[in-house]
């Protein structure tokens, strides 16, 4: 058996390249926007425009991307978020190959907040909405909420990384996650939805 | 954990930098106590007289910040509530 076979047995390709690029570019643009707020106005704007564009692309990719990037998965993942978090507290991370249900909530919330923050920030420098109080308030609080969410996201990823004994940050660079059950043949049928999802990704 | 160290470094650095950022906004115009300030409407009137379309004003630190539009361009004007002198102008 070649080492390549070994690798594909132990790892599964989850995050496609455009998704990874969008993820890290968005993270970078949000950090830049955060640090440049108030002081470096033009840099702050550029970061905001880039963030809006990245979210727009991510939304398109939610319909055109590979399985783990698709929004169609959300209808299955989102309703399970509370149950997932309860199980997580008992030490179970579930058999999710792409996003887990908490990650799905994070995706929807962070994309929405980035869009709200970006658009309200852009509105502030239009003649129509310049100085309008509710636009300022919306921009400020959606931005703070986004930062809080980013902190929660980092904590969540660290937590699941420890529990699953794999570095999920590295996985977002390479696109590959460790198989949780090496050699397991993912079958559709009586197994849970998560395994069915896994099967789809395996093909 | 391999990621703990870089994470700690990044968040520490970011916090320090953002703290420096927030301290930098313009907000010191007067030492006069607030009860002796001239009304904000006078700062707005002054901006109007200077040719700005006034959108709104608010208290920013010890300044009146007036949002003004002139020839399609956006300005933040900072007036001292003590004597209504223009202390600072930011072109957006």
Describe this structure in words.
The complex is a heterodimer of chains A (about 200) and B (about 90). Chain A has about 200 residues and is mainly alpha-helical. Chain A has 9 helices and 2 strands; from the N terminus they run αβαααααααβα. Chain A has helices at about 5-10, 15-35, 40-65, 75, 80-90, 100-125, 135-165, 170-175, 195-200; strands at about 10-15, 175-180. In chain A, α3 (about 40-65) packs across α6 and α5 crosses α6 (about 100-125). Chain A is elongated, with a radius of gyration of 19 Å. The relative contact order of chain A is 0.15. Chain B has a 4-stranded antiparallel beta sheet with strand order 1-2-3-4, covered by helices on one side. Chain B has helices spanning about 5-20, 40-50; strands at about 55-60, 65-70, 75-80, 85-90. The interface of A and B includes residues 39 and 41 of A.
List the helices and strands and how they pair.
The complex is a heterodimer of chains A (203) and B (92).
Chain A: H1 3-10, E1 11-13, H2 17-36, H3 41-64, H4 74-77, H5 81-89, H6 101-124, H7 133-164, H8 168-174, E2 176-178, H9 193-202
Antiparallel strand pairs in A: 1-2
Chain B: H1 4-22, H2 40-49, E1 53-60, E2 63-70, E3 73-79, E4 86-91
Antiparallel strand pairs in B: 1-2, 2-3, 3-4
Overall number of domains of chain A: 1
Write down how many β-strands of chain A occur, each being a DSSP E stretch of 2 or more residues. 2
**Which spans of chain B have pLDDT < 50 for at least 5 consecutive residues?**
20-24
SSE order of chain B: HHEEEE
How much is the radius of gyration of chain B in Å? 19 Å
Spell out the helices and strands of chain A N to C: HEHHHHHHHEH
**Quaternary class:** heterodimer
| Residue share in β-strands of chain A | under 5%
Give the rounded overall mean pLDDT of chain B: 85
Helix/sheet category of chain B = alpha+beta
Largest interface: A-B, 20 and 20 residues
CATH class of chain A: Mainly Alpha
CATH topology call of chain B: Nuclear Transport Factor 2, Chain: A
Whole-number total of structural domains of chain B: 1
Q: Which of globular, elongated, flat, extended, rod-shaped describes the shape of chain B?
A: elongated
């Amino acid at each position: 058996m070649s080492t390549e076979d070994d690798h594909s047995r132990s790892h599964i390709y989850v995050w496609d390249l455009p998704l990874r690029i969008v993820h890290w570019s968005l993270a970078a643009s949000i950090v830049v926007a955060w640090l440049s707020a108030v002081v470096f106005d033009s840099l702050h704007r550029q970061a905001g425009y880039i963030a809006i564009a990245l979210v727009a692309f991510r939304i398109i990719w939610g319909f055109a991307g590979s399985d783990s990037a698709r929004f169609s998965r959300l209808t299955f993942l989102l309703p399970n978020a509370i149950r997932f978090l309860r199980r997580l507290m008992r030490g179970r991370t579930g058999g999710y190959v792409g996003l887990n249900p908490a990650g799905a909530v994070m995706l929807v919330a962070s994309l929405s907040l980035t869009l709200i923050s970006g658009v309200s920030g852009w509105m502030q420098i239009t003649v129509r909405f310049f100085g309008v109080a509710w636009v300022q308030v919306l921009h400020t609080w959606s931005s703070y909420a986004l930062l809080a969410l980013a902190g929660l996201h980092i904590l969540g990823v660290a937590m699941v990384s420890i529990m699953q004994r794999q570095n999920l940050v590295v996985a977002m660079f390479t696109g590959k996650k460790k198989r949780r059950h090496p050699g397991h043949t993912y079958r559709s049928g009586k197994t849970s939805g998560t395994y069915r999802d896994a099967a789809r990704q395996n093909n | 954990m391999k990621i703990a160290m870089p994470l700690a470094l990044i968040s520490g650095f970011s916090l320090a930098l953002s703290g420096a950022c927030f301290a930098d906004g313009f907000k010191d115009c007067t030492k006069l106590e607030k009860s002796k300030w001239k009304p904000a409407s006078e700062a707005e009137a002054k901006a109007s007289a200077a040719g700005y379309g006034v959108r709104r004003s608010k208290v920013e630190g010890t300044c009146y910040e007036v949002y003004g539009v002139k020839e399609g361009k956006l300005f933040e004007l900072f007036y001292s509530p003590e004597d209504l002198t223009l202390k600072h102008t930011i072109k957006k």
